[in-house]
Amino acid sequence: MSAIVVRDLHVTLGKAPILRGVDLTVSAGEWVAVIGPNGAGKSTLLRAIGGLLPSSGAVSLLGTPVERLRRRARARTVATVAQSPVVPPGMSVFDYVLLGRTPFVSLLGRESFADLEAVRALLERLDLTGFGDRELDTLSGGERQRAFLARALAQEPSLLLLDEPTSALDIGHQQEVLELVDTLRRDQGLTVLATMHDLSIAGGYADRLVLLAEGRVVAAGTPREVLTEEILSRFYRAKVRVVDGVDGPLVVPVRSVSADWPSGS
Amino acid sequence: MKIPGVRWPWLLGGVLAVLVAAIAGLAFGPVSLPPGGVAVELLDLIPGVNLHSGLSERDAAILLQLRLPRVVLALLAGAMLALAGGCYQGAFRNPLADPYLLGAAAGAGLAVTAVVALRGADLGALPPSVPLAAFAGALIAVALTYLLGVGGRDRSPASLILAGVAVSAFLAAGQTYLMQRNADDIRAIYSWLLGRLATNGWHEVRLLLPYAVVTTVVVLALRRELDVLSVGDDEASGLGLHPQRSRFILIAAASLGTAAAVSVSGLIGFVGIVVPHIVRMLAGGSYRAILPLSMLFGAAFLALADLAGRTFAAPAEIPIGVVTAFVGGPFFVLVLRSAKRVIT
């Protein structure tokens, strides 16, 4: 079954049309990366899929239109890690991750023992055991990103939406977080849809890439199909060479296209 | 087992602070009573307990008929103002929010003044409907402040508070106008405006108590949602919450508590900002810990402030609003300076 189906999604914010008829299908267990130049509508697409924007029936999650899901049911289906999540001042990591249990806590109730156990297990799984009592705003970038992930996973979602999950991280922590996401995806059968900035890294982790430009999908397919010099120069206005790497094509910016680099496309 | 949001040591400390403040407030005054005797006399009030405090009949009458209602009123009003402050701070995600700075108190004050001036109600024996009029005034004021302060482009914490200052000034002008039109009541209204905990038997406590209970039940029942709201509306919505609805209920409840406290005790400033901030420094940033602790420490704080107001310049009384402003004003400046760091 398709985990995410988007059919002819239009989103207008204020008067500006952001998405102009996006089609997208993500199969269960797949990792799809949404790439595209700044302002292409990547974050808006993620918000619409997460049910945070009206989408008039264009978005279905696991076969149900996202607007027909009740809020709590939706929160147990899809979890989003925003590009720069709000860090509540003074909140401990444990309490923060516990917020992810919100869709399981009854309206006036409090977390059950099972909820606390779930958080404890997640902290251990994400290598945050010693951080439970630390305040979230004292963590380093990589640790914080793991805490954001832990909160999303506490929702026990089938779909994980990540908006630029590694934009604030150095290359080592980027790899660490993305490897973690990939392992979690395999272990728990998660479906991952992530917007990603770094094209080579996107190609290295995602099964498929979707290139968004000016609110439309202009290219979609395997990394090798999408990451070509011709497509990238057209939609990013970038001078790049694409070379073969171990995990997929590598996109290398160049200052002059005429340089005699080996071409991978 | 660790229960999220429950800080046992601080909870015990809060209860202890309330007890100490209550016994001090009961024991000291124009006539000093032995604190031990006061404590025993209080225990004697518990049904089924029969103790002899050794207080004379006259002292017992001072204790039970004069001081006890006043101390209970101070505890209740302090708990309400501190709870409302903490609740506003969470609902607005603004460390500077407070019943006074948001204009809620001024709105409630204008409504009470209107009832007194236009309907000839006696400030010493307000009818039970007055807190509801004050509630309407507080809600309208907060709504105005919200529209002016959050609706614009500048969403910094200070812009909300500036809007609150403008709304408060506007409402205070209306209040002054009403007072001038009714020169007969001007002294009574003015002394109430400065904040007063003078009591007429248990009348004020009976007036405040039902509203205080409603506010406490609603806010404490929803205190988990304040933590969820702290990650912002988008993420709160993604966690399954209805952020606007939660915020509205919480703000309404905090305004009800504010209105009821203002109805009986006038304008007592800064409790709602000083107490939750100190609690936050002591017990961490979770509203589940902040709110119950704010009630306890707010109650103790106002009972002690009242004691200070009664005793420093005895036999004259310093209005309690003046005492809390003396303490709270400088503290507010500190909060203001650190607010840039606190809010993102």
From TrEMBL, chain A:
CDD domains: ABC_Iron-Siderophores_B12_Hemin. The keyword Protease does not apply. InterPro entries: AAA+_ATPase, ABC_transporter-like_ATP-bd, ABC_transporter-like_CS, P-loop_NTPase. It comes from Asanoa hainanensis. The lineage of its organism: Bacteria, Bacillati, Actinomycetota, Actinomycetes, Micromonosporales. SMART domains: AAA. This is Iron complex transport system ATP-binding protein. GO terms for molecular function: ATP binding; ATP hydrolysis activity. Keywords: ATP-binding, Nucleotide-binding, Translocase, Transport. Signal peptide: none annotated. Residues 4-239 form the ABC transporter domain.
From TrEMBL, chain B:
GO terms for molecular function: transmembrane transporter activity. Its main location: membrane. GO terms for biological process: siderophore-iron import into cell. InterPro entries: ABC_BtuC-like (IPR037294), ABC_transptr_permease_BtuC (IPR000522). One of its GO terms (cellular component) is plasma membrane. Keywords: Cell membrane, Membrane, Transmembrane, Transmembrane helix, Transport. This is Iron complex transport system permease protein. It comes from Asanoa hainanensis.
